[in-house]
Q: What sequence folds into this?
């Protein structure tokens, strides 16, 4: 397996990471980027979340891919370079290999150690596919190595991760993907999108009965401690998740159980009142029409969509314009 770049934290200057985190922690409404949920343990916890009965997106998306495999494969076309954004354990892409038959698989993720383990294991199962991994924080930039070919690039962004961006940010991100695809015939984007639905379905998906999502959210504090040399104590915080119907998004927060003070390097400090929250993630939900319009605004051409029978989830393939 070839390595296309250095690990993700080397790609973004450490001081920039720290500045971003500190700015969020000191904001009037404290917040962190959801990318900090994904250290090695966080990535493993998210893989466990995907197996939970309450977490419908993964199994619903998987069912869509299985039911419409031939149509999706026809839209993507064989012999593509499949670029998997936020690849995680690479299982979603791996399930598509038999139908899509890519000539090359490029796994991209911020959690590099976890990614390398996954790609090395996957290469043993599919030795005929050239595989590479790329450590990158693609949420802010999407500059692919020159060594990667431009012909028949197919970006793959499953699991409704596009929902982590606010709508305007999502549009800008899709435009970066469109730029990264180039203008080659047979290139495009295959993406999963979570659709607006009843909060009785949405809320348990992000606050499961076993507490796995809570552990995933609280683990962010361990990651921040390492990055900032901070002294967050997870036992001082509780997981909160709920659907904000006005903004069509799930919100995840960490809520202080009591008044507390957190310190970090270079004299940084923040006092939190009891009940005060750190906003750690949003997951926006879309209508079919709204998301197709966003793809077209981003510069894509023809769009094909596939949904489950309940219209809970949608898979889209967008061609280059």
A:
């Amino acid at each position: 397996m070839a390595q296309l770049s250095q690990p993700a934290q080397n790609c973004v200057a450490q001081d920039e990471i720290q500045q971003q985190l500190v700015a969020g922690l000191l904001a009037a409404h404290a917040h962190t980027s959801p990318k900090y949920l994904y250290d090695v343990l966080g990535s493993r916890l998210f893989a466990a979340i995907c197996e939970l009965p309450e977490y419908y997106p993964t199994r619903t998306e998987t069912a869509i891919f299985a039911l419409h495999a031939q149509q999706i494969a026809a839209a993507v076309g064989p012999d593509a370079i499949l670029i998997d954004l936020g690849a995680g354990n690479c299982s979603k892409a791996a399930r598509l290999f038999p139908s899509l038959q890519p000539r090359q698989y490029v796994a991209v993720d911020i959690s590099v150690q976890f990614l390398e383990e996954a790609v090395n294991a996957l290469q043993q199962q599919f030795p005929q596919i050239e595989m590479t991994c790329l450590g990158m924080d693609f949420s802010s930039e999407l500059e692919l190595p020159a060594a990667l070919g431009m012909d028949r690039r197919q970006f793959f962004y499953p699991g409704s991760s596009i929902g982590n961006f606010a709508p305007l940010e999502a549009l800008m991100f899709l435009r970066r993907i469109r730029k990264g695809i180039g203008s080659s015939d047979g290139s495009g984007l295959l993406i999963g999108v979570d659709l607006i639905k009843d909060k009785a379905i949405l809320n348990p998906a992000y606050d499961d009965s076993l507490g796995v999502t809570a552990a995933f959210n609280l683990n962010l504090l361990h990651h921040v401690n390492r990055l900032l040399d901070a002294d967050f104590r997870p036992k001082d915080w509780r997981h909160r998740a709920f659907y904000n119907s006005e903004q069509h998004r799930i919100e995840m927060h960490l809520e202080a159980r009591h008044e507390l003070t957190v310190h970090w390097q270079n004299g940084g400090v923040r006092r939190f009142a009891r009940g005060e929250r750190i906003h750690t993630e949003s997951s926006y939900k879309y209508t079919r029409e709204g998301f197709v319009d966003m793809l077209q605004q981003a510069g894509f051409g023809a769009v094909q969509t596939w949904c489950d029978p309940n219209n809970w989830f949608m898979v889209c393939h967008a061609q280059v314009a």
Notes: The first strand starts at residue 2 and ends at 3. The radius of gyration is 19 Å.
